UniProtKB/TrEMBL annotation:
Homodimer. Keywords: ATP-binding, Magnesium, Metal-binding, Nucleotide-binding, Nucleotidyltransferase, RNA repair, RNA-binding, Transferase, tRNA processing. GO terms for molecular function: ATP binding; CCA tRNA nucleotidyltransferase activity; CCACCA tRNA nucleotidyltransferase activity; magnesium ion binding; tRNA binding. Residues 22-142 form the Poly A polymerase head domain. CTP binds at residues 27, 30, 111, 154, 157, 160, 163. NCBIfam families: PRK13299.1 (NF009814). ATP binds at residues 27, 30, 111, 154, 157, 160, 163. This is CCA-adding enzyme. Belongs to the tRNA nucleotidyltransferase/poly(A) polymerase family. Bacterial CCA-adding enzyme type 3 subfamily. It comes from Lentilactobacillus sunkii DSM 19904. A single active site specifically recognizes both ATP and CTP and is responsible for their addition.
Length: 394
């Protein structure tokens, strides 16, 4: 039993000693059985939220309308959720109504996949009502109950299935896969932010090529932003081998294979509601990927990309002969940012080279560019002389 469960045991025990049931549920149980690292420990209980709150000193109402209370314990937060059933789902996403119940079985029934519908009790007993353990052995993702109904209730589950297939290197069981194919267009009802999260997790999984291929085969790719227009390029990505480690790499790989310019990348990623900082890095990484592919990487492009995006481009470029020595070249750049330039605007003014003016910025940019290119050494006297030369040339 992992230490995360050990540390949370007193919480289970406290709820139980008050006469309620409490179990570990969800991803942490699945990942423990699969011997994968676990992140957050989720607890399900027959106690109602008000009852949970009355048992613990420090709680936060993180999602009390859905039955979730966070218990703070020695710096760790545990989400404790009351057993519940869901109903409504009129708009193919999230239930209109949740009903708290006292039965573990009802709670496990509403969960998405058999491997996610296991409960682990304080004494180490596993409740497995839908054959989740068997499916883990067979390495398959199977919907709890009728896949068609389950995807109709909440279309995000289709993306979750693909994400788990990629992360766990599992197959999606046939009826579940058929359900996805049949309901793929319902994905358009889901908030882009939610598909985004699952899509990125999928692309970072150990079997992302397979995950992406399932998106193509089930037509899911046609119901997320932009991807629908790029089938041949997506097929090429599926056929290639890649193992990505962050979100910037995910979007950069796609943007590179789609042949996107900076403004196309911006449009693409705004449709996916991607954070601006990520969009910026994707533009820099993709630009670097194009120059690697052309076999002409300038110091300037390495400099503007920055250390992290150089790493990103190296991870994405399958042919490592094309990127050998690239990071060393970056590390050997005379400067890594403008602050390292051995001259400032203030110094140029003090020395009477020029007065405060818009020209000052241009001169500094030119100096920066030349230092990066290696045509002027990063030494103050040399930089002052060069600045005077530029001004005379103008
Ligand atoms: P991760 O390791 O990525 O956190 P997880 O399985 O824990 O994976 P969560 O989103 O944290 O995923 O959800 C916790 C549990 O809640 C799931 O294991 C599943 O039982 C249930 N669940 C989550 N989302 C859904 C959904 N859309 N439909 C049905 N059950 C869900
Ligand atoms: Mg989780």
């Amino acid at each position: 039993i992992p230490k995360e469960f050990h540390e949370a045991l007193p919480i289970l025990q406290k709820i139980e000693s008050a006469g309620y049931e409490a179990y570990f549920v969800g991803g942490s149980v699945r990942d423990t059985i699969l011997q994968r690292p676990i992140h957050d420990v989720d607890i399900a209980t027959s106690a109602y939220p008000s009852e949970v709150k009355s048992l613990f000193k420090r709680t936060v109402d993180t999602g009390i309308e859905h039955g979730t209370v966070m218990i703070l314990d020695h710096g760790t937060g545990y989400e404790v959720t009351t057993f519940r059933t869901e109903s409504g789902y009129q708009d193919y996403r999230r239930p209109d109504k949740v009903t708290f119940v006292r039965s573990l079985k009802e709670d496990l029934k509403r969960r998405d996949f058999t491997i996610n519908a296991l409960a682990l009790s304080e004494n180490g007993q596993i409740t497995d009502l839908f054959g989740g353990l068997d499916d883990m052995k067979k390495r398959i993702i199977r919907a709890v109950g009728d896949p068609n109904e389950r995807f109709n209730e909440d279309a995000l589950r289709m993306m979750r299935a693909v994400r788990f297939a990629s992360q766990l290197d599992f197959r999606i069981e046939n009826a579940t896969l058929a359900g996805i194919r049949r309901h793929s267009e319902l994905l358009e009802k889901i908030a882009v932010e939610r598909s985004h999260t699952e899509f990125v997790k999928m692309m970072l999984g150990v079997d992302a090529e397979n995950g992406l291929n399932i998106m193509l085969e089930t037509n899911l790719y046609q119901h997320v932003p932009v991807l629908g227009n790029y089938l041949p390029q997506l097929k090429a990505i599926v056929a290639s081998k890649f193992q990505l480690t962050n979100e910037v790499q995910v979007w950069s790989l796609l943007s590179f294979k789609f042949g996107f310019s900076a403004s196309q990348i911006s449009t693409f990623l705004k449709k996916w509601k991607t954070a601006n900082k990520i969009i910026n890095d994707v533009i820099l990484t993709t630009e670097l990927l194009f120059s690697i592919a052309r076999g002409e990487v300038s110091n300037s492009i390495l400099y503007h990309a920055g250390a992290e995006n150089v790493d990103n481009a190296v991870v994405i470029t399958a042919d490592s002969t094309k990127t050998s020595g690239l990071k060393e070249r970056y590390n050997n750049l005379p400067i890594k940012n403008k602050k390292q330039l051995q001259i400032t605007g203030g110094e140029l003014i003090k020395r009477g080279v020029l007065k405060p003016s818009p020209q000052l910025g241009k001169v500094l940019d030119t100096l920066e560019h030349n230092v990066v290119a290696g045509t002027i050494p990063n030494q103050q006297e040399k930089l002052v002389k060069a600045a005077i030369n530029f001004l005379n040339e103008d």
